[in-house]
Amino acid sequence: MGTTFTPAKTSPTSWDAFGDVDAFVDAVLAELAAMASDGTRSTRSGPKPPLTGAALRKAILAIWCVAFCGMQWRAIGLLCDIPFGTLYTLFARWSRIGLWRRLLNRLILGWRQACGDKVMPSAVIIDSRSCRSAPTCFGRGFDGGKKIKGIKIHLAVDKYGFPLAISISPANRHDSKGIVPVLHQLADCGFKGTALGDLSYRGQRLSKAGEALGIIIQPSAGGHGGTFIPEGIRWVIERSLAWISRYRRLNTIFERTEAHLVAFIEIAFISILSRRLHILPT
Fold it and tell me: Which of 32, 126, 142, 202 makes a 20 to 30 Å CA pair with 274?
C-alpha cells in the first residue's frame, strides 16, 4: 500500500536538455565557489594555472556533454579545444571531493523547500535498473531475468523522483541484496520511515536489516499478468529510471570505477534539477 501524499506536478513544457544547460554550468560554478570558501575545495598546485572564466565554463559544459551525449573524452577534448586529460582530471577530482553529491543534495533541498515539503521525506521508493557494460567496466554480471550482462543501478528516490541514495552492483546480484548499501546511505543521512518497493524486496533478512536502521521495507505487487499497474507513488521511480536513460553515458557503462558511474548519475539529476529550479516561477 502506498502513502497518502501525491507527487508534484511536472512542467507542461517539452523536455529539452540543451534548453537550460547554462543553469547546470551556473549551479556547478556556484558550488565550486562555495566549496572554495569553506575550505572543502583546495587550490590545485601544478605547473599550469587552473582553469578560470570562460575556459572553466567550457570544461563544465564538456563534462555535461560526456554524460548526455555519451561522447568519448578524447572526442570532446578535440571539440572544445581543452586537453582531454585536463577534462578527465577535473571530473575525477571533483568526484573525489564530493562535488556532485553535495550539489545534488543542495538542489534537492531547494526543490523540496520550493514545493513546501520537509527536508527529509517520510517515505522513499526503491528500485533498480540493469545496464549493459563494456568488458573494461569495473564489474559485470548476468541478469537472467532481463538477459543483460553488465551492472545494476540501485536507487532510493523521494516522491519527486530525485535520488537520496545510489548504489552499484553486478547485474547478477539480487535486488534484496543490492539495496542494502542504499539503506545504509539513507540511515546515514538521517532518514527514518518507509521504503516502498516491488516484490523483489520481500524476505525477513532484508526486513530485519531495514528495521535495524529504522527503515520499514514495504513491498507490493507492481503489476499483474505482465502489465504494469501504478501502486500509490511507486511509479515515480520508473520515471526517474527513464530520465537517466536519456543520458547516453548511462545506457552502456564504460566506467572503470563505481565512483565515476555514480558521479555521472548525479550529473544527470543535477542537470534535470537545475533546469527545473531555473524555470520555477518566483
Answer: 126
